């Protein structure tokens, strides 16, 4: 029956009676109210909204159903496109009767549907995390700041729709909205991430019709949508009409599992037929391509009530579905009338797999799996939450190219197409309900008030809202084989409302597992909620998850991190530590990195340069929420990879190589795939001599079984090593065609590099040539030899001029202990606790400048600096020694001696130079080609690389440390004519060359800087460091996220050395 609704007050619907919903509805039905709007009543989530059904369409032919072309059906009417639109900044300013037939909207502007109205220039987009975007006083919303968008468009009902049931489908809108058709009230809905359907059959008429939708920016449902993302409003997914038969197969649930042998597929199919009609039949067929492998039929008895039918069957020797083997079958459903005429055809792709916890491990088809996952928000840098099919496909392609096998739909159900693509191309999915009440969770978890007095999961008024959001997610998405986990939501505390939702899922879907984080403050105690199937903490560091895996008190549920390795800005340090632990302990089964894509918006500066905008760029946030906390992605908003994606790709690689006897070419190959052997991969090797490839060859053909290993000979020819030459051997595994969906043949999925000899040391200095000329005045000490001039300013102790053939190439040489703060440095306290190193890097006192001739014809200038403190007791003493040989080469030695015991560890140890802007070219022998750091380097192979200096910095959303390279043997910087310098380390160095003053990265206040601020300027910055601390990133807001101790720099005496030599076009040193 249809729920009566009427209009009262300011056009609000008030519930007079509520129909019982199919299935278990634990909360009591809401009572009528004439005082409070539906959008401020948590017990009212919908009025006259159709029960959720599985994603499908009632086609008129088998051919259309199998093709899945909804737009080709004569029973589909697309309502996307331009709608008339009026924006009201507050509830009181909204139009009250715009939905009436006689109301003239011709003067209104138009807006595209789907779209977020903030992207079209209406209202302010807000970026919030934790803090609600309005004063939190649940369930109420401040009317004065609750903007409203009123939509209207005309349509004509197509011919041939008479006698059919017409549903209005609104893919997603919110936070809440009312619907009218031809001036008649149709319904109301909340939950901005799931579709709503309304039966509008009785409101239609011949000829012109109109539909009106009024969307409220905030509602009581917004208290459950407190996610870490842009708060924007509108109709964000497709709107259309469908005309179903008067009797139709409305819903179905295909439970597709394997039998106990994991060889045969079992189909258990529940079907729901609605409508008043005579007897009919349902036919269900399973097709493998065009071949029918299973058919079942059943009669449908005439009835005025919905009928539930069940069919079952077994397919022997089925091809199972996994993320590695996404084998799909077609389930074709046909409804025939008593005369055998086809009434409806629907088809979906299904996959047979069994998901279970057995032996304390999450298993797919009987085998334990490792989740190499990411969290993914639906985000577009132009349209906010409106996501195109092309964007979805690009995301999945990039995931497959970079060894990602799982995705969490953080933190809400995604567009339906996303799951179909995951089914097709192979991704494990954690489907998450649109529930996050972070602001109220925080209050309870921080002990400000008892949890059961503040968290919404304990409040019986919110029971229905929690349960319905979980139920409706499951009912829509239940037929997708890629979904192996249901998630109850994110960061919403705990309580009986979650327990009820979990129990409902366990009762209604026994084919999947249930996940939820639960308590926020019990991470250290390892207490997963009793109603979930595995432990899913967030941001536990590697040591803590190892504690869970090894401590006898916690022997029980497996662990999968629902979030970890917070990839904010220049981050993802220490990822390998996690996976060393995960591979070492069976019960540690992986996790989902936070997160996939930076949530920034495309804007342009006044001079037209593009940059990534964040919340503060749209004006002050009324709630005072975070201005920049959303650059957390492995990809930039346009899906350009951030440098740390290379690290993920390497660490997530599903094949590993371990040396048995590297020099003899003997290695153990470990297959980390859970289901496929290695017969679909080609292997090869490359031998590098001082970084350059000198030999390469094919590896053996392998068929190493899933989760297996074998020791093999790569047939590397015997190597005759030359003294002083470094040899490196790299092994690679490449895909063949169709080995991995969307991944082309020849793509490298895994590699490893092995040292066959140590890095080279500095070569002996040439003794030929005249003696070094020395000039020592009160202003400067100058050394000259072989066309090289080195002049040290006595007042500053810095290089005033390093020149070759009278061309100035280098200046500076200041001791440097500071780096432009990364997002992690700011959030984890490194920036605050280490700020002393910034002034210590900018000011220094020259204690002494000494000039000395050497017996071999060389000469040296030694500069002693006192840094910080006072003259009698400096904080640091730093000595830089420049020793010039007869051939003009300069050996530079830096010695660091900390004297003040209260110094924090330095952020880097080295010297900073500048070079003229004509120096534009860069080549190096070290890790590359992208940037690398002390704790994020495994994805960068050692080799010889070249590029433009202007291309070495990465445009992070907020300018910060960027462009570094570790394990650098030598570095050459030169002008286009080839003239420049080479820097060679006595040991591998950490270096950075940028086409602008390094201080530009740290010049503007945090929260006001953008990538567009960084442009090539008057000089090149060159940092030659002994080392730089790691990036950290276990989280981005506590000491847990600081770099691990092994990637920090001790406050202890240290010494390093490198050599500067001139280069010119055609010389060996510049090749």
UniProtKB/TrEMBL annotation:
It catalyses: Hydrolysis of terminal non-reducing beta-D-galactose residues in beta-D-galactosides. GO terms for biological process: lactose catabolic process. Residues 782-1061 form the Beta galactosidase small chain/ domain. PROSITE patterns: GLYCOSYL_HYDROL_F2_1 (PS00719), GLYCOSYL_HYDROL_F2_2 (PS00608). Residues 1-26 form the signal peptide. It comes from the Bacteria. Belongs to the glycosyl hydrolase 2 family. This is Beta-galactosidase.
């Amino acid at each position: 029956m249809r729920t009566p609704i009427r209009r009262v007050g300011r056009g609000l619907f008030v519930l007079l009676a509520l129909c019982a919903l199919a299935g278990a509805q634990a909360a009591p039905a809401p009572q009528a109210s004439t005082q409070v709007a539906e959008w401020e009543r948590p017990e009212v989530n919908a009025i006259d909204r159709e029960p959720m059904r599985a994603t499908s369409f009632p086609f008129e032919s088998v051919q259309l159903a199998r093709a899945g072309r909804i737009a080709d059906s004569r029973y589909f009417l697309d309502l996307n496109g331009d709608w008339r639109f009026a924006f009201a900044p507050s509830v009181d300013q909204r139009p009250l009767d715009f939905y009436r037939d006689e109301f003239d909207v011709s003067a209104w502007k138009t807006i595209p549907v789907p779209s977020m109205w903030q992207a079209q220039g209406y209202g302010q987009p807000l970026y919030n995390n934790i803090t609600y975007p309005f004063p939190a006083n649940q369930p109420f919303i401040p009317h004065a700041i609750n903007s409203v968008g009123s939509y209207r468009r005309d349509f004509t009902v197509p011919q041939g729709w008479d006698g059919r049931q017409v549903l209005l489908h609104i893919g997603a809108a919110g936070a809440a909205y009312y619907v009218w058709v031809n001036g008649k009230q149709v319904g109301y809905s909340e939950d901005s991430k799931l579709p709503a359907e309304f039966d509008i059959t009785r409101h239609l008429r011949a000829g012109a019709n109109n539909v009106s939708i009024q969307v409220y920016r905030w509602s009581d449902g917004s208290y459950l949508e407190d996610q870490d993302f842009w708060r924007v409003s509108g109709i964000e997914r497709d709107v259309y009409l469908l005309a179903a038969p008067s009797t139709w197969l409305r819903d179905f649930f295909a439970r597709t599992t394997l039998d106990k042998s994991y060889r045969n597929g079992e189909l258990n199919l529940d079907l729901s037929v609605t409508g008043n009609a005579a007897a009919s039949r349902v036919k269900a067929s399973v097709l493998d391509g065009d071949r029918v492998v299973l058919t079942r039929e059943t009669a449908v008895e005439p009835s005025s009530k919905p009928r539930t039918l069940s069919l079952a069957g077994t397919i022997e020797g089925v091809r199972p579905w996994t993320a590695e083997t996404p084998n799909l079958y077609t389930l074709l459903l046909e409804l025939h009338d008593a005369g055998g005429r086809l009434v409806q055809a629907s088809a979906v792709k299904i996959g047979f797999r069994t998901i279970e916890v057995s032996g304390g491990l999450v298993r797919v088809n009987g085998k334990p799996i490792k989740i190499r996952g990411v969290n993914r928000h639906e985000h577009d840098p132009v349209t906010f939450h409106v996501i195109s099919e092309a964007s979805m496909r690009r995301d999945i392609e990039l995931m497959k190219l970079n060894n990602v096998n799982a995705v969490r739909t953080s933190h809400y159900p995604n567009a339906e197409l996303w799951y179909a693509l995951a089914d097709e191309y192979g991704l494990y999915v954690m489907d998450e309900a649109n529930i996050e009440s972070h602001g109220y969770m925080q209050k309870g978890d921080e002990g400000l008030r008892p949890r059961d007095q503040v968290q919404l999961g304990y409040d019986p008024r919110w029971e229905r809202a929690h349960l319905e959001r979980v139920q409706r997610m499951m009912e829509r998405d239940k037929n997708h084989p890629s979904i192996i986990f249901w998630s109850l939501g994110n960061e919403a505390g705990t309580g009986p409302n979650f327990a009820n939702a979990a129990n409902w899922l366990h009762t209604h879907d026994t084919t999947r597992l249930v996940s939820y984080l639960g308590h926020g403050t019990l991470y250290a105690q390892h207490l997963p909620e009793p109603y979930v199937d595995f432990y899913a903490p967030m941001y536990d560091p590697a040591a803590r998850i190892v504690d869970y895996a090894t401590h006898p008190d916690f022997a029980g549920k497996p662990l999968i991190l629902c979030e970890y390795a917070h990839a904010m800005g220049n981050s993802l340090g220490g990822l390998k530590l996690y996976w060393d632990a995960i591979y070492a302990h069976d019960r540690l089964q992986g996790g989902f990195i936070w997160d996939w894509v930076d949530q920034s918006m495309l804007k342009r500066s006044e001079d037209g340069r593009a940059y990534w905008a964040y919340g503060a760029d749209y004006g002050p946030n009324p709630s005072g929420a975070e201005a920049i906390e959303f650059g957390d992605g492995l990809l930039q908003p346009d899906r350009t990879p951030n440098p740390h994606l290379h690290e993920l790709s390497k660490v997530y690689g599903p094949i590993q190589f371990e040396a048995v006897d590297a020099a003899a070419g003997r290695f153990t190959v470990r297959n980390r795939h859970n289901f496929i052997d290695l017969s679909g991969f080609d292997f090869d090797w490359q031998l590098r001599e001082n970084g350059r490839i000198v030999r390469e060859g094919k590896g053996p053909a392998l068929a190493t079984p899933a989760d297996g290993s074998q020791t093999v000979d790569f047939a590397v020819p015997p190597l005759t090593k030359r003294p002083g030459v470094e040899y490196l051997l790299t092994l690679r595994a490449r895909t063949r065609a169709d080995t991995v969906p969307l991944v082309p043949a020849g793509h490298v999925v895994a590699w490893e590099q092995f040292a066959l000899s140590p890095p080279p040391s500095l070569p002996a200095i040439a003794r030929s040539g005249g003696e070094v000329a020395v000039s020592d005045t009160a202003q400067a000490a100058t050394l000259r030899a072989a066309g090289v001039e080195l002049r040290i300013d006595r007042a500053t102790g810095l290089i005033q001029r390093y020149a070759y053939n009278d061309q100035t190439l280098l200046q500076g040489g200041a001791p440097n202990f500071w780096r432009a703060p990364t997002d992690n440095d700011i959030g984890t306290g490194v920036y605050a606790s280490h700020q002393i190193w910034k002034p210590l890097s900018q000011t220094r006192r020259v204690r002494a400048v000494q000039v000395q001739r050497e017996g071999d014809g060389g000469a040296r200038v030694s500069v002693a600096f006192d840094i910080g403190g006072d003259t009698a007791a400096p904080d640091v003493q730093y000595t830089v020694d420049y020793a010039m040989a007869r051939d003009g080469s300069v050996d530079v030695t830096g010695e660091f001696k900390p004297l003040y015991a209260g110094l924090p560890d330095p952020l880097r140890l080295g010297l900073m130079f500048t070079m003229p802007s004509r120096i534009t070219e860069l080549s190096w022998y070290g890790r590359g080609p992208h940037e690398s750091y002390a704790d994020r380097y495994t994805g960068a192979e050692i080799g010889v690389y070249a590029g433009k200096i202007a291309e070495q910095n990465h445009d992070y959303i907020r300018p910060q440390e960027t462009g570094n390279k570790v394990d650098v043997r030598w570095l050459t910087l030169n002008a286009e004519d080839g003239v420049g310098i080479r820097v060679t380390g006595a040991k591998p160095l950490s270096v950075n060359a940028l086409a602008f003053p390094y201080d530009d990265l740290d010049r503007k206040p945090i929260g006001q800087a953008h990538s567009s601020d960084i442009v090539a300027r008057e000089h090149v910055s060159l940092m030659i460091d002994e080392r730089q601390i790691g990036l950290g990133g276990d989280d981005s807001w506590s000491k847990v996220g600081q770099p691990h101790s092994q990637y920090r720099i001790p406050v202890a005496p240290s010494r390093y050395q490198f050599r500067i030599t001139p280069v010119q076009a055609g010389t060996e040193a510049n090749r």
